[in-house]
Amino acid sequence: MNIKVNLEPFHYIEVKDLYTQKEQYKILKELTHHESKGIFKTPDNTRSATEDGEFLKQNTGFWWDALYYDRGYSDILKINRKLFKVLESKKTEESWFFNQLYINRDTTLISYYENKDYYKPHRDNSLLTVLTWFYKEPKMFTGGELVFTDYDIKVKCAKNYTIIFPSNIKHEVTEINLPKEHCEDGYGRFVMTQFLMQQPTNE
Fold first, then answer.
1. Could you give the CA distance from residue 127 to residue 2 in angstroms, rounded to a whole number?
2. From the CB of residue 145, how many other CB atoms can be counted at a distance below 10 Å?
3. Per-residue pLDDT for 174 more than 80?
4. Which residues have C-beta within 8 Å of that of residue 105, sequence separation ≥ 6?
5. Above 80 in pLDDT, residue 8?
6. Which residue, 152, 149, 153, is CA-closest to 168?
7. Which of 53, 88, 130, 178 shows its CA 20 to 30 Å from the CA of 19?
8. Residue 191, SS3?
9. Which is nearest to 164 in space by CA: 88, 104, 83, 93?
10. In what order do the strands lie in the sheet with 128-134?
11. Residues 10-29: pLDDT tens digits?
12. How far apart are the first and last CA of the chain?
């Protein structure tokens, strides 16, 4: 695991190889199993961002917490707890933003992008957005970069790469290009999005 804390032009964290080979295998197995069963839904079923009544994205997805009433039944929902080791690491002390955060709730959205899918510039409704990318190998698609549209930052889609950033930073996903012969067979771009927030507690 390789953690890099960036302070400019805003505070964000990059993590290479957050998950081990064994963990990646379990995650991708669960993702492709459910994708093949057709559970992934269109944007109107995933509380997606809109503008003038139009959805800003074209892809499919599913809220993993709604799929498993008990986290213990999902390899993904167990394994992705590893994220909090990153947020608690000494590296985050370099950033006053991450050092002062208090998080007590998170949700997991799994999204899948095939040919011509995209997500236009938008902001998320949480404190932190955490993205981790997965795909079958060999990689059959191009595109699908993460772009912070108000800054000169474009992040290439790489397997088992994680980026953590404030949710109010505007971002987009460039269009995916996947040959038609590989569509509908799980060779697109999977992204695990963890939305982290602070939920009020009764005192």
1. 23
2. 14
3. yes
4. 196, 197, 198, 199
5. yes
6. 149
7. 178
8. strand
9. 83
10. 2-6, 12-16, 161-166, 128-134, 189-197, 105-113, 60-63
11. 999 999 999 999 999 999 99
12. 38
Q: What is the average pLDDT value for the chain, to the nearest integer? A: 94
Rounded Cα distance between 195 and 107, Å, is 5
Given a contact cutoff of 8 angstroms between Cβ atoms, the answer to whether 24 and 17 are in contact is no
Contact by Cβ (8 Å): 132, 162: yes
Residue ranges per domain, the chain? 6-197
| 80 neighbors 108 (Cβ within 8 angstroms) | yes
Tokens, residue 50: 């809109």
Render pLDDT for 46-82 as a digit per residue (tens, 0 to 9). Answer: 888 888 888 999 999 999 999 998 999 999 999 999 9
Between CA 32 and CA 189 the distance in angstroms is 11
CA distances for 199 relative to 55, 73, 127, 132, 167, angstroms: 27, 24, 10, 23, 15
Spatial CB neighbours of 29, under 8 Å, sequence gap ≥ 6:
75
Question: By C-alpha distance, which of 109, 141, 120, 148 is closest to 58?
Answer: 120
In whole angstroms, give the CA distance from residue 135 to residue 182.
12
Angle subtended at Cα 186 by Cα 180 and Cα 187, rounded to the nearest 5 degrees: 60
183: amino acid identity, one letter = C
Q: Which CATH class is domain 6-197?
A: mainly beta
